[in-house]
Description:
Layout: H1 3-19, H2 22-37, E1 43-51, E2 54-61, E3 66-69, H3 70-76, H4 86-90, H5 108-113, E4 117-120, E5 126-131, H6 135-147, H7 156-182, H8 184-200, H9 214-224, H10 239-253, H11 257-264, H12 286-302, H13 307-317
Antiparallel strand pairs: 1-2, 2-3, 3-5, 4-5
Amino acid sequence: MTDELQDRAAKGGKARAALLSPEERRRIAVAAAEARWGGLPVARWPGVLKIGDVQILCAVLEDGTRVLTQAELLVALGRHRKANVRNVREENIPPVLQGERLKPFISQELLEKSQPIQFRTLQGVRASGYRAEILPEVCKVYLTARDANALLKQQQHIAVQADILIRGLAIVGIIAMVDAATGYEDVRRRDALAEILEKFVSRELRKWVSIFPPEFYRELYRLKVWDYSNMKPNSPKPLEVGRLTDDLVYKRLAPGVRDELRRLTPRNEKGYLKHKLHQRLTEDIGNPKLEKHLAVLVGIMQGHDNWDSFYRHVGRALPRWGSNLELPLND
Length: 331
């Protein structure tokens, strides 16, 4: 392709992009991220780990792995978030444990467990982190090196920070042990579910508004190889479409929300729901979460050519909620 043709193509791409709405551009970006990083596990349950005054971004991946984000962990230990040394990297030592003075105190087991894990955020962005369980072990490496007078002067502040983290983890650990021993763990779980339902589900029936974008149904019909030409906006959908919507959306939106919405929504004499389930979602949290979920879902749909491939992917990226109630309500 000549320079002139390349220039025309670039200008044409920019012109087409200018015609897209912000929502359409976001969906295209999500689909591109899905296509690029689709093989990485998803951080399905993100959150913030608070240890004293230190806060570290954390997440539980869809396979159950607990991770702490790499940059935040480095900062929590007093390191630069982009810390890396060429000769250390060549020896396969992760940045969080780099330093010649630390080598004698690092076991092979810790070295293997502390290799960075690549994953994707809920927004489709690639991220890197460490297994959460290495945090106290990494702290102990610095503290042991300090006790042996092996640290350099510029590393002393890291040992101080490691001491703070270790003390904070001890407090958190004893609280978790007491909760488990007394059964309060179950109470806390029930309270968490009650909080989720309170934030997501409204006791008042909201006026009906169109929430589901046409792209959702268009892509659904395309993947199922159904005829979309006779679909009319806001018209009643076939039962199979309702069943798939229940599966793809409400069962994956948040813990317990789908069952609570159905409990609060009466049925008519023919057994059909009298109101749309989303009319019971709260305006400040439930509704925005639904819109975000649909945007991600449509992006995944657009990245696949057949139903089986899409359904496998959505099972990884947006799995149905189980018993885990650690749901972030403020992202």
